[in-house]
Each structure stands twice: as C-alpha cells, then as structure tokens.
Task: structure prediction
Amino acid sequence: MLPEAVLSVVVGIALAAACGLRIFVPLLVLSVAAHVKHFTPAAGFAWLGSDAALIALGVATVVEVAAYHVPWLDHVLDAAGAPLAIAAGVIVMAASAQHLSPFLRWALPLVAGGGAAGVFFALTSIMRLGSTLTTGGLANPLFATFEAGAAVVLSILALLLPLLASLVIVGFIWIALRRRRRRMSVRPGGNAWTAS
Result:
C-alpha cells in the first residue's frame, strides 16, 4: 500500500493530466466527489464541494465540451486554453495534495500539476491539428468526443483507482510519442515507415 502522501500526488497528477484533455471535467468530477463526501479536498479547497461550485463547474463543462465539437472553434479554444488548462492542473493537484509539507503542497502542484496538464494539452492540440490537416476538420468532432470521454474516465479513475490512472497516462504518452516518431521517420525518398 502506498503512503497517503504519495497516493495524493498520484491522484493529483492524474487529475491534472485530465485537465489537459478538458479543463473543467476534472474539476467537476472533484466537485461531485466532494459533494457526495467521497473526496475530502485539501485545506482551502472546501469550496469544491459547494452547491455553487457544482452548478458553475457543470455549466462550464457542458459549454466547453459542446464548443470543442465545432470544428473551427476547437482551434480557437486550443490557442487560448493552454494557460487555463495549466491553472486547472495546478488547482486539482493542490486540492488533492493531502499529507504534504507546506512547501511541497504548492511546489508539486505548480510543477507536476501544471506540467502534466500542459503536456496533455499540447499532445491533444497537436493530434487535433493532425486530424484537421488529414480530414479537413471532419473528424474533429469525433476526436472531441474521445477527448471528453477520456477526461471523464481518467478523472474517475484518478479518484477510484489512481495507480491504474497513472498507467493510462503513461500509455497515452507512449502512444503519442510513438505516433510522432513514426511520422518523423518517413524517409524523404519514399513512403516507408521506419519506426518499429
């Protein structure tokens, strides 16, 4: 069994990564979990369990998920959303940071939470751009549905099965990097893929 402090870090990083997929989904999942007393937020984040937070985050989630299904609007959101995703990653990790020293309680969310959200946001933005270039944006709503679903699943896994959530994160990064490596390894003289 992992120590409580390590477990809270794993939960926080998984939730932060989910913020890179959809900014408000992990915040809404945390709010619902706090509301039903399945999750106890760290000191200073009790507001997540309030009725007002639940309603506001629910509305924000619906608007964000719907907006990403509009092909031209998804790129506008990508251009403007990176700082918001990073901020949300910091918030969800700080809200989960239980049993940590005062220094680590903010240093880890800033570095690991913001970093995980930023990496996932960048990866999905690059993948969406690839979808736009290869399908003319026709596949973007399908991609948006996948992202929203992945954000929900990853957020729930972070709270219920954090170690499995961390494996999902590693798998997602591995697949994204492998696809990138394959694209980069196309030989200039032909169409052969050289990546294993």
About this structure: The first helix runs from residue 4 to 21.
